[in-house]
Amino acid sequence: MPRYKNLEPTAAFWSWRDGAACIGHEDLFYSLEEESKGARRKKEDQAKAICAGCPVFDTCRTFALETKELYGVWGGLTEADRHRIAGRHRTG
Ligand code: SF4
């Protein structure tokens, strides 16, 4: 049973994000449709570097995986990384 099954729009629920290292760098964590693969990859690498030093890394990664977050870099994982992990879990 996912720990984050029921998302709550409350400040208390989202308080773990108060310590996020990505605050102020949000543009690096989400890519635009029109961006080239190279530009996207560069932003993802920069985002992952920020995640690597983030004090809420584990919580963020767990949250993104358990809620099947579709977009952006969370806990050092890109959208493609999460798809790969989800696929591995489905196929065992
Ligand atoms: S792990 Fe990365 S995406 Fe998650 S809160 Fe920290 S910096 Fe932001």
Automatic annotation (TrEMBL):
Cofactor note as given: Binds 1 [4Fe-4S] cluster per subunit. Following nitrosylation of the [4Fe-4S] cluster binds 1 [4Fe-8(NO)] cluster per subunit.
Iron-sulfur recorded as keyword: yes
Named cofactor requirement(s): [4Fe-4S] cluster
Main subcellular location: cytoplasm
Superkingdom of this protein's organism: Bacteria
GO CC terms, sorted: cytoplasm
Localization of this protein: Cytoplasm
A biological-process GO annotation: cell redox homeostasis
Recorded GO MF terms: 4 iron, 4 sulfur cluster binding; dinitrosyl-iron complex binding; DNA binding; metal ion binding; protein-disulfide reductase [NAD(P)H] activity
4Fe-4S Wbl-type domain sequence ranges: 21-84
PTM description: The Fe-S cluster can be nitrosylated by nitric oxide (NO). Upon Fe-S cluster removal intramolecular disulfide bonds are formed.
Keywords assigned by UniProt, alphabetized: 4Fe-4S, Cytoplasm, Disulfide bond, DNA-binding, Iron, Iron-sulfur, Metal-binding, Transcription, Transcription regulation
Positions of [4Fe-4S] cluster binding: C22, C51, C54, C60
Function of the molecule: Acts as a transcriptional regulator. Probably redox-responsive. The apo- but not holo-form probably binds DNA.
Entry's family note: Belongs to the WhiB family.
Protein name as it appears in the record: Transcriptional regulator WhiB
Gene name as annotated: whiB
